[in-house]
Amino acid sequence: MRVIAGQAKGHKIRGTSRKATRAITDRIKESVFGILGDLSGQRVLDLFAGTGSLGIEALSHGAEEAFFIDKNRGCVKLIKKNLSSLCMSGTVYPLAAGTGLKRLGERGERFDLVFVDPPFGTDLAEETLKQLDELNIVRSGGIVFTRHHAKTILPEAMGKLLLKRRKKYGESIVSFYGRVER
């Protein structure tokens, strides 16, 4: 696994041997970050972070600040190692995504870009979208990226989060939701 573009382009990101962690492919990352474009000054949240690959890629693309949440302590250590090896900084929480979102919401944290990449075969993608909307964590005009199994059908809208784009990559689907004020 590697950083595909930006200031850390080409640098390796350490992976995990955990079978439950599905690394996002370079092909998907390249497509996603091509769609997202310049992330200068943005605050990013990487949920179900695993290796931290998405948040790290966002930092490489100019994001100002990144928060990483993963409940697995091994993944948390790995994210910290990956950040350190790339001379990047980020805030890493060893929490379940739902718990982390509640804490961030209570503190009034808001993000321009949120990555939601839960384990396949769960309903965590939809639950997380609902929680993001309810807690008002995504700034107006912000984007939520979700990656889920092709058999998982996510709604066209979740409160103020509206589906803007969906693309299939093998058995993965990436969906982009935008936060709009109604």
How would you describe this structure to a colleague?
It is built from five helices and eight strands. With 182 residues, it is of the alpha/beta class. It has one domain (26-116, 134-179): Vaccinia Virus protein VP39 (Rossmann fold). An eight-stranded mixed beta sheet has the order 3-2-1-4-5-8-7-6. Strand 6 and strand 7 form a beta hairpin. The longest helix has 13 residues, at 73-85. The radius of gyration is 15 Å and the shape is globular. The mean pLDDT is 89.
Query: Looking across the biggest beta sheet, what order are the strands in?
Result: 3-2-1-4-5-8-7-6
Structural class: alpha/beta
Q: Which percent band covers the strand fraction? A: 25-35%
What fold name stands as the CATH topology? Rossmann fold
- Measured as a percent range, the helix fraction is 25-40%
Q: Structurally, how many domains make up the residues?
A: 1
- What is the number of beta strands? 8
Whole-number mean pLDDT: 89
pLDDT < 50 stretches: none
Total of helices: 5
List the helices and strands and how they pair.
Elements (H helix, E strand, L loop, with lengths): L25 H11 L6 E5 L5 H8 L4 E5 L3 H13 L5 E3 L3 H10 L4 E6 L7 H12 L2 E12 L7 E2 L2 E9 L2 E8 L3
Parallel strand pairs: 1-2, 1-4, 2-3, 4-5
Antiparallel strand pairs: 5-8, 6-7, 7-8
Helix pairs in contact: 4-5
